[in-house]
Design a protein that fits this description.
By secondary structure, the protein is an alpha/beta fold. Helices cover 42% and strands 19% of the residues. The protein has a single domain, classed as Rossmann fold, CATH 3.40.50.2300.
């Protein structure tokens, strides 16, 4: 399953990639340490090259995860049904959960660290979505 991971924390990226590979979830995993780079990459892809899943950190310098989601709004129709975004955050703020529901592309908010059970649930959601 083609997967994009956007997180500025190298340790989080390392651990998430390792767990995704261990669970046989993603191949390939393309990681970006900045939202701007990820956005540029994503917008250049053909519809059949889009990642099935994007894991997005919220708190990043220059362009936050929220900014990334706002930048995708004009492209929602192209991405809906092809690309599912899961927010990965260490925040427990109810505001983040509420705000995540404002974005059609966001299908879940996961508190770091990601675990095996969540990966299995995401896999099931993606498979169901593709039927």
């Amino acid at each position: 399953m083609n997967t994009l991971l956007i997180d500025d924390d190298s340790i989080s990226v390392f651990l998430t990639e390792k767990l995704l590979r261990q669970e046989g979830f993603a191949n390939p995993i393309l990681s970006f340490h900045s939202s701007q780079e990820a956005l540029g990459h994503l917008l250049q892809l053909a519809p059949d090259e889009l990642p099935a899943v994007i894991f997005l950190d919220l708190n990043m310098p220059i362009m936050s995860g929220w900014d990334f989601l706002e930048a995708l709004r004009p492209h929602e129709q192209l991405l809906l049904g092809r690309c599912r975004i899961y927010i990965l955050t260490s925040s427990l703020a109810p505001y983040d959960t509420a705000r995540s529901k404002e974005f059609k592309l966001v299908v879940g908010l996961i508190h770091k660290p990601l675990d095996s059970m969540e990966i299995q649930n995401i896999r099931l959601q993606v498979v169901e979505n593709n039927r």
